[in-house]
Design a protein that fits this description.
Blueprint: H1 2-58, H2 73-83, H3 89-92, E1 98-101, E2 117-127, E3 141-151
Antiparallel strand pairs: 1-2, 2-3
Helix pairs in contact: 1-2
Protein name: TadE/TadG family type IV pilus assembly protein
Transmembrane segments: 20-43
Keywords: Membrane, Transmembrane, Transmembrane helix
Length: 155
């Protein structure tokens, strides 16, 4: 009789470990999902700030931030957005995917001329790692657009 009681206790102990593992796995995945959503929010706000700073720089007509020091205004504006993105710019967008449009939605070459009204759009992607979010996003990535519109000064 004593041996049967010990055997049952060992089985119950094993079941408790399995239940604990299942519950911990669920809650850990839930916590990682919350962190994933928080990171997405951080990335989106950071990129919104980067495009706004780039637009503010673009309206002045300056080119001092050009990394090649060749007074290339477009490169200087992209560098300003890169500097303002906390290192996220190259992770969420390719440079050739930057859209610059006038207020009617027509493409503008460069970042517009003096007095032009421009809107800069960055079509970004951020990968998700949460299995709970995968059914709600395409190809496992958050896709979002951040924009800023301003009028160029008479530079």
């Amino acid at each position: 009789m004593r041996k049967v009681a010990v055997a049952n206790k060992d089985k119950q102990s094993g079941i408790a470990v399995i239940e604990f593992t299942a519950v911990v796995a669920f809650f850990l995945t839930l916590i990682l999902t919350i962190i994933d959503i928080g990171m997405y929010g951080y990335v989106k706000l950071t990129m919104q700030n980067a495009v706004r700073e780039g637009a503010r720089y673009a309206v002045t007509g300056q080119s001092g931030l050009d990394p090649d020091a060749s007074s290339n205004r477009e490169a200087a504006i992209i560098q300003k957005m890169t500097n303002s993105s906390n290192g996220l710019f190259s992770q969420v967008i390719e440079v050739d995917e930057i859209r610059v449009e006038d207020l009617d939605g027509n493409a503008v070459t460069g970042f517009g001329g003096p007095g032009d009204l421009i809107a800069i759009h960055l079509d970004c992607e951020w990968a998700t790692s949460s299995p709970y979010i995968l059914p709600f996003v395409d190809d496992g990535t958050y896709k979002f657009t951040v924009s800023a519109a301003m009028k160029n000064e008479l530079f």
